[in-house]
Structures are given as C-alpha cells and as structure tokens.
# Entry
Amino acid sequence: MEKSNEERPTLMAGAKKKQRTFEGVVLAVNLYPDARGRVGYWRYSRPDRTFKTFPAGDVHLANKIAEHNNTLRDLAPTKKTPNTNGTLAAYIDEFILYREAQNPNLKEAGSWRNRKYALAQFCRQIVRPLAQLKRVEIMHWWDTLTPHQQKARHAEFRKLFNWLMGRELLTAMNYNPFTLADDRPRFYQSATPKRASVRFDVPGFWKIYNAAGTLGYEGLQIAMGISVTTFMRETDILTLKLSDDLEDDLLKKVIGKSIAQVGEAKAARLQWSIKDYDLLRNLINRARLLSIKNYGCPYVISHTPQRKLIGKTKDHICQVTPRRLITMFEEARDLAGYAGMENPPTFHTVRSLANSIAKDAECHPDQIKQANAHKSLDTQLIYQEGHNLPFETVQIQFTAEQIGGDFK
# Structure
C-alpha cells in the first residue's frame, strides 16, 4: 500500500547531507573516490559540476588537496549571471528562429551564417534595455563599421528592428532606424575608397585557364568556362549536378542569389541549350568524363584532393567547395603572372568578363540583364507549383572567336 505524504520521509530544512567515507575516513566536501575504482586516484567536483581527477597516495592527502581547493573556491568572487531580460540578447534567438521559419532556404545559405554572427556581435555591443534604446546609440555603433560591414548588415538589421517594433519592445523609438524612407533620418553607407583594379581581359582569362591545366586543376578550367559562357556565379556553378540540372539537351538552374532575395517561386530560372551551344557542350562533356575519373562525383565541378575527406560542407570526397575553388584559382592566377599585384582578378571577375564580351558583341541590354539573373519572373507565377515553374532560355551564346579559344 502506498504511503501517504505524511508517512514519507522528508529532508528537513537545515538537515545535513550524509557524509561520504572511504575505508572509515570521512571524505572532504566535493571529494569522491575515482569513478573507475583505481587505487591512488580521486575526483574533485568543480563549481560547474564537472570533475577533476587527480592522484593522491592516500585518503588523508586527498582530503588535504580537496580542502585546499574548497578554500580557494570560497574566496573566489561569485560570478553573476548577466541579466539579459529586456535586452537584445533576450530576443535574438527567437528572431533567428522566426526568420528561419519564414524562409527555410536561409539555413542553406552561406550568407545566413555571417548574418547570424553579425546579430550575435550586435547583441554584445548594444546592451541597453530595449525600452531605453534610442536611435542615436545605434547611429554611434553604425559609424564604427566599415563600408563592407554596413552593406552586409543593413537589410537584415532592418528586418530585426521591424520585428522588435512589431512586438512593441522599442518604446523609445517611433520608427525603424534602418528605414529606407526618404522622409525619415536614415543611416547612410560610408563611401568605399576607389581601388585601381587590374583589367581582366580575354588573354588574361586564357593565361589563368592554361595555368590551371598545368596545375592539374581541370575542374577549375570547367568552372571558369561555365562562368564565362553562362554568367553563373561560383556558388551556382559548384552546386550543379550532372543528374539533377541536366535534362535532355538543356542545362537548367534556379539562381541561388535570386532565391535568397525573392524566394523559390519568384526566383530567376534559367536554362541553356547544350545542343546548340558548342562551347558549353564541350564543357559538359568534359565534366562527365572528369566525374568518372573522380570516383563518380555527381557534381559538374569535381576534383580529387590529396586528403580524401568528407566534412560538413561536402557530401562527396571530390566535391569542390567555394573555399577550395578560390584557392585553386589563386594558385593558377599566381602562376599566370598576377602574383604580387595590389588588386588581382578573382574568380568572380570571370563573370564580369562575360559581361564585357557580351557588350562588345553588341548583345541587347535586356539579354545581358536576363543572363545575369537580374530580372525575376512575373508575380503571377507565385501561384504555380514549384516544379511547374518555367525556365527562361538564355539567348546569349558566345563563339570560340569571341572568347579567344575553345574548351575541347
């Protein structure tokens, strides 16, 4: 029969805990025998409830060591837990979860990690309770940022403050300090000093392309070729899959940056005719052969590394990450004679070269705009199912004469 509450034994207030003993000797507070039963070893319980294992010849020596540590512990000042209630730090995790729930694609975007880091850093710098926070304090922080930092933070911080104001947490502000409205005082981006850039032309492209071949970086050569023929960014090129993005004689891609800006339904969806585009067809054929060499890598861009590892950023040993592509490009660029230059070309410069070639070929500005994925689909397409959304065919097709070479 179950005992009533009155019959159950209870520990009265002020009652002492049962003392621990070892071979008849009372152990000091926070001292315990070794968890594995080893002779001459003991455990000391730290303030954070973790254990420190230490050697001591007998129980008396172990007691002395534990009592000494207890004395130091009592003398140490108590660390107060910071009160985050009412500050940005108390709400930032909730805001991040809200953003990810509203836009699940964020979790896959590399820029989202950077934005979350910027939000966490902002919380450490702005510690005043939200009810007391004023625009001038945000402005002083804003002016300490570099032009690049300001550009990277403005849009996300505008969303953060919209969310905070919607919850009526910023009672000392009557509008979003990151507003874009002309009738409100705005935060302006600092001017970036003009840098003299190295002109990247067609001969320069082929110097780096050939240097990549000398280094054995055929995957980089294919990536450079796809960039200059399709105007695609490196992140889109590196996520191309031979099975998923190649359909019959078409190369199809939903542009990643467009997804991040306007969502999956309204994102730019581009396709290229491989059958009719000689340069691109040669590149895809080489990518298929390279995939076979690289252990059946499913990606269009592949490379067998010296260390065959699969990390958090890879799902195949021969998949090329953005960091790896940049490293390979820099090595090929230096070998091609660009080493030591103040502002040498980057892989993204290849895409800019494609724009220059298109302008020299007198392509229509609307065609160039479409090829760069700077124009999204009509709003009515929101109501269509994702797999039924049409792809727009890119009209620009360069010839070997226009780009100064072939990719066979």
